[in-house]
Amino acid sequence: MTLALYVPRPTPVHRAPAGAKLLALAGLGALVFAVPTLLVAAGALIGVLLVGLLGARLPLGLLARQARAVAVWVVAILVVHALATDVLTGVETAVRLLALVLAAAVVTATTRVTAMVAVVERVCAPLRFVGVRPARIGLVLAMALRFIPLVAERADRIREAQAARGGSRRGLRGLRTTVVPLLVQVLQLAHTVSEALDARGADDVPRRARGATS
Amino acid sequence: MHHAYGERVVLDGLDLRLTEHRVGVVGANGSGKSTFARLLNGLVVPTAGTVLVDGLDTRTAVREVRRRVGFVFQDPDAQIVHPTVAEDVAYGLENQGVPAAERAERVAEVLVRYGLAGHADHPAHLLSGGQKQLLAIAGVLVMRPARIVFDEPTTLLDLINARTVMQVIAELPQAVVVVTHDLDLLEGFDRVLVMDAGRVVEDGPPEQSVRSYRKLMADP
Questions:
Q1: Residue-wise pLDDT tens digits, B97-119
Q2: DSSP per-residue string spanning A14-46
Q3: Contact residues for B133 (Cβ-Cβ < 8 A; gap 6+)
Q4: Alpha carbons B130 and B48: distance in angstroms, whole number
Q5: Which residue on chain A is closest to B112 by alpha carbon?
Q6: Do residues A119 and A22 lie in contact, with contact meaning Cβ atoms separated by under 8 Å?
Q7: Of A139, A198, A213, Cβ closest to residue B103
């Protein structure tokens, strides 16, 4: 499982500010919903592909993998609309979904996590007045991206260990026997991670001056 | 100095002055050596007594102590907090408020030194065990601490990766304290402490301490 999809390339799309890319993504989302026509949705999809493949020089396989991840939903949308409304509306909705998913993938693949987190911190800056530390919100986001694959990996190890000893991997009982040891491991991990954050000066923070690191 | 978790005493009557360049700490599981390591940069403060680093009390000057004493954990997965390699190495520098340009320079330099330059933008969780431990060390070294504490740095590694980490530790200009079960790692050290039930039961050059430790393990 990979949540950090950044693909380094020396392109203008990569160099564009993270805030601008996120704003463009939000704008694209607003546009395809505000003007719900096949022409706009198809135009958005073509535009995203051009920016992703030519502008950002991303590999076709990366975008194809993202499209495959929502293939089931695309098919479901088509089927539901074909039965409930009409095929054209189904195609338009499916193309819209695909355009937005691929646009999000292009933004993720061309933007470092730290740059994205810096935008979140800037957006959350007013929360400072109610006692919330924006840097902490950013750190939580970055850590979520870091630890979700790790926790998934540990869950796999537990399931494998149980399977190796003839344990059941199915049903509610299987879920419980996985969740309890996983929870214990995650709590132990959380304790060590909190120590590691302390050791690396998490509470020092004179100012979180984030930005590209290389 | 004493330390206890509730009723359980884990360190009992320690009175030490560590001035050597390389100090090793060995002992059975549960002997208190990891708690001892954590005392050295203020992750744990003693329940009685004082730990001083360059005259600074870890109880009252913990931030300054942590700037001076880096800490490398046994499990690098617990130490790597950012999704990609370069971002993780930069984390400690961000906390210190190092400007972006200098940060980028120092991160690049340390990644080259530890053979991770080609992985700068790779997801950290896709690295091998050895590379993760090198990344954890790089994340500490980039902060340029004067001393580094290693808590069982080779325990989770295969022989080749363990040797690489040993080599890295051997070449460090900083003073190091290494808690380990890996007796090969102690070769060339200046001083080795043997811990048992929260006490230092041997304190001397590696050969003497390792001999004593082997005897202790053979006849506990």
A1: 899 899 999 999 999 989 899 99
A2: HHS-HHHHHHHHHHHHHHHHHS--HHHHHHHHH
A3: B72, B76, B153, B154, B156, B157, B161, B165
A4: 38
A5: A214
A6: yes
A7: A213
Q: What is the pTM of this model?
A: 0.76
Q: Do B90 and A150 touch (CB under 8 A)?
A: no
Please give, rounded to a whole number of angstroms, the shortest distance from the CA of A41 to a CA of chain B: 33
Q: How many of the other CB atoms lie within 10 Å of CB of B154?
A: 24
Q: What is the pLDDT of residues B21-79, one digit of tens each?
A: 999 999 999 999 999 999 999 999 999 999 999 999 999 998 899 989 999 998 888 88
Q: Do B45 and B51 contact (CB within 8 A), yes or no?
A: yes
Residues B122, B134 contacting (CB under 8 angstroms): no
In the sheet with B69-72, reading across from the earlier edge strand, the strands are: B69-72, B147-151, B175-179, B22-27, B191-196, B199-204
Which residues in chain A have their CB less than 8 angstroms from residue B111's CB?
A: 214
Is the interface score ipTM higher than 0.90? no
Cβ-Cβ contacts under 8 Å for A2 (sequence gap 6 or more): A149, B123, B126
* Contact between chains at B140 and A200 (C-beta distance less than 8 A): yes
**CB-CB under 8 Å, B100 with A212:** yes
- The answer to whether A51 and A13 are in contact (CB under 8 A) is yes
> Which residues does chain B have within 8 Å of residue A204's beta carbon, measured at their own beta carbons?
63, 66-67, 95-97
- Whether B125 and A146 have beta carbons less than 8 Å apart is answered as yes
HSE-CB at B214 with a 13 A cutoff on CA atoms is 8
**Cβ distance of B87 and A192 shorter than 8 Å:** no
Q: Per the structure block, which two tokens stand in for B101?
A: 């340009």
**Chain B hits for A199, Cβ within 8 Å:** 41, 43, 66, 70-71, 73, 140
d(CA A202, CA A16): 29
Q: Are B176 and B23 in contact (CB under 8 A)?
A: yes
Residue of B nearest to A152 (CA): B125
How many interchain CB pairs under 8 A, A with B? 129
Q: Say if the Cβ atoms of A8 and B90 lie within 8 Å.
A: no
Give the side-chain half-sphere CA count within 13 A for A129. Answer: 2
Dihedral, CA atoms, B201, B205, B209, B210, nearest 10 degrees?
160
Say yes or no for a CB contact (<8 Å) between B84 and A202: no
